[in-house]
Fold each of these.
Amino acid sequence: MSKVLLKYIPQEAMPLIQQWYEQLPFHLRITKARKTKFGDFRPAFQGKPNRVSVNGNLNQYHFLITLTHEIAHVACWEQFKGKVNPHGAEWKTIYSDMLRQLMAKTELPQDVSTALEKHLKRPKASSCSDPDLFRILKQYDPHSPTVFLDSLSEGEQFVFQERVFKRGNKRRTRIECSELKSGRTYLISGHAEVEKFVNS
């Protein structure tokens, strides 16, 4: 596992990940990009070991945090065997402890460390559920074609879920956007990743 993972995470994090792997055996699968999730966990079943998957297109810091998130699910399952909420207090305690270990052993960029410190106070179900952390991690993506909706100016056109919209007024965390084809108005999260529309 070490040789494979070194392509995806900072080198200094490897000993700790290896330690967790030895304590909590699981099968790791690195997948293609998935639109609905960055990683997942499936408990041991019918002779199959605990399984963890992480999207292979994530940058090294996002991959590392997602992997830690999923390993925390392995640890929680091994301790409670599904008797607790998947993202309940027990998992949050385990995940927070693992993140603290990770931060102590890995030299992370200052903005990532600051965002993680804040994230630790109220761990979310995923990094994209924590807009501040997600924004920081996204900055380390190489040549990402997407931007956050709230970074666009009013009136700018963009592509979201394969449809073209025009940005309108902001309402708290959501933004009024009109779909060009139908003329219908939708409220879309300002944290949504969209692509700027370019007329060809």
Amino acid sequence: FRIRFYSFEAILEAAKARVEKSQYTTVSGYYENLRSVIYGLAVVGTNEKNPDEGLYGVISLSDLKEVIGPKYDQIEFVQNTKEFYITVANGTKGILAADGSTVIKQSEYKDIKLLDEENKVYLVEKDGEYGVLDRLGKVIIHAENDKIGYDIKDFTVEDIDNPALLFKKCIPVEKDGKYGLYNLEGEVLLNIVNDALGCVSNQGAQTSGNKQNVLIIPSEVGINGIVYNFNGYYGIYDVNEEKPVIPPACESVYAITKSGETIYYFDYNGVTFDLKQYLLDNNLANVKPEEEKTVENTEMPDATNTTNEQPAE
């Protein structure tokens, strides 16, 4: 058999020639929309002389039939999910699938963005506030928050793929200067009462041997954890167990890198603890190494305290 390879430019020109045989003569020039031709679809408009003033729809290049009728002010093709983001006359947005079926109905949201491709969750905006919807348009987090996600510019120890979905499980939320966490089912993991997520120990360059800022605790330490601050004290939330593994009682949580090895620490009552060793000693690690030291448990406040109350002095 013979395999043929075509350049994108050749595919695009063939698509435009095909569209000319339909009732439409305008193909959206937006780059992402042009990429829809790879999948046998074309975003077409109704105003040849001034496309910005026309309405847009989508046709199938195989039979030139309408997949999405030309009734939208704007259409944007999203290649990752093979979906079309649509904008109607009142400025609200929705999402249609490649077959024209409705993913998220255009209604009250002024903006919609894909939050996570694997889990198919979407960030939505309404009246300047933000929420999260699932693939069926069901509300996970109501659009009543100042921000979804977290600013990670101060945290460089670990590579964070998506600051809006930590460990692909936890959604950080900010409201009135306070922070919390939700899961993908819309359940509250940490109430929105915390002063910050992460611990900033070093405002300057994070060189070898210095304390480094920490937002997440990686699995090699023994848990998948998220550091949070409540009333000036730091705790660590265990993502897998969905509860604080260390309550907000620590003065600091940080990492130090020496000779290419990064070790995580926390300070409690003026004493510094190796976090990994503490988790092992107290049977709190999710995955334990083959050989484990047997030592007396180190006393700490009750880790089952999930109310975010300030520890007693």
Amino acid sequence: LHDPSLRGLRLIIGSPDGRSVVSSASYEARRYGVRSAMPVSQAIGLCPTARIVPPDFTKYRDASQKVMAIFEQVTPLVEPLSIDEAFLDVRGVRRLWGNPGRIGAMIRHRVHDEVGITCSVGIAATKHVAKMASTMAKPDGLLVVAAADTLDFLATKPVRAMWGVGPKTAESLESRGIRWIRDLRSTPESALARAVGPALAIRLRELALGKDPRAIETSRVEKS
């Protein structure tokens, strides 16, 4: 946004200091395997032609505040997850703005027109599925998963796509042949418990069945 000459380039956002980590990367660099939190030295090894750009968190916070202000003009039920992500509960504002798909499209247009950046929107009946849908909609799209389609949507997705399943948990599941979310539904709870522990086993089974009772927490304190 602030330097249009950088558009379309392979970018690593971070310090050139070899001990630093990647804050973010352009999608052109991500195609080479560059990821956030990766050591910059490793990222350069994966994508030697990438350009390293130092982060500017003052600009990031300014853009974030503008985007969050748009969200809050749509609904008071906004839960920021990080500087660039939030959940919105739009059930109570459908008469004002239209169905969730129209609301999502409106938000995307407003963010583009008023802030100058793109955003991806996932719409679903639960926070977990909405988070997965937004990831699938990246880098600049909108995906709606109707409540009636939730189980079918989840069935064909890998366990790694689940919100909260990290690499170690995924490896533990995959080593036991549990590769897809549909596999979680058919695996005995005792077997899941041996793989990931009893508490997480119950949680994953519920999410695999499309159950996620978590509500929007507007008073959540951002820790990162």
